[in-house]
């Protein structure tokens, strides 16, 4: 029985290998996104980034930090609105994501992603910045906030706007597929069995019923993951789930202790961070605000409801100017 199971798995891996080989080129949308940016070196790795000129010098620069398993392109639907709020909009793909390098023999961590963010801002000579984050990016932002609170960075954080991320382990429920990928050895095998249909089904589960990406948008998301054979290392990126529990005191504590303005934009139909999150957020960090979007909005609010997202973000930024 075990022999036939091994044979079946082997055949499955070979079948998916031939489906994904050679890797398809980037979609036209992702190619255009890539052409609008460039790369910088972090140690030996190429990190993709874009800098968009804003029309509000008084608003200062904003650094956007994307989520798992996608890329900086997640912010494309709100980019025009962000440009109106800020002097510059900085976007980048973290290592292992999107258009950046995805080394196979690498230990991925939130700490390193925060290092990359700091290095990029240093390269751009940005010393003070607003942070706008989503999902995985929320945790990276909290690590940057912890460093700022503890004065272990030269970066000055002006404000932080979070969105639909598992900042509290108690109210975060990873998808069954994510849990499987964290199982030693099994995760590596399952990643190699990845194909478009499974990806589309999994990603679609975290969007609202009425706010699903179009077929071409699903293809764009998948294209960014396939780039540089990223589907092979997705299981390694999921180490952040354990890191959130390991560093809970540091990262949740950074929210509780900080004096900078913080706001959360939240889509309540999120199966990963369900609506129990709202009460826990208000109880745990009562001094920080939260905007709860319409009931049908799920895990990707900046994509599913860009106008509502921008309205909430603009309101938050206007409050800063008043203060």
Quick take:
This protein is α/β, with parallel strands linked by helices.
List keywords for this structure.
single chain, 323 residues, alpha/beta, eight-stranded mixed beta sheet, 46% helix, globular
List the helices and strands and how they pair.
Elements: H1 2-20, H2 28-35, E1 38-42, E2 45-53, E3 61-65, H3 79-85, E4 88-92, H4 110-123, E5 128-133, H5 136-149, E6 156-163, H6 176-181, H7 186-192, H8 196-204, H9 215-226, H10 234-237, H11 240-246, H12 248-257, E7 262-266, H13 276-284, E8 289-292, H14 301-304, H15 306-322
Parallel strand pairs: 3-4, 3-5, 5-6, 6-7, 7-8
Antiparallel strand pairs: 1-2, 2-4
Describe this structure in words.
The protein is α/β, with parallel strands linked by helices and 323 residues long. Helices cover 46% and strands 15% of the residues. The protein has 15 helices and eight strands. Helix 5 (136-149) packs across helix 12 (248-257). It is globular. 40% of the residues are buried.
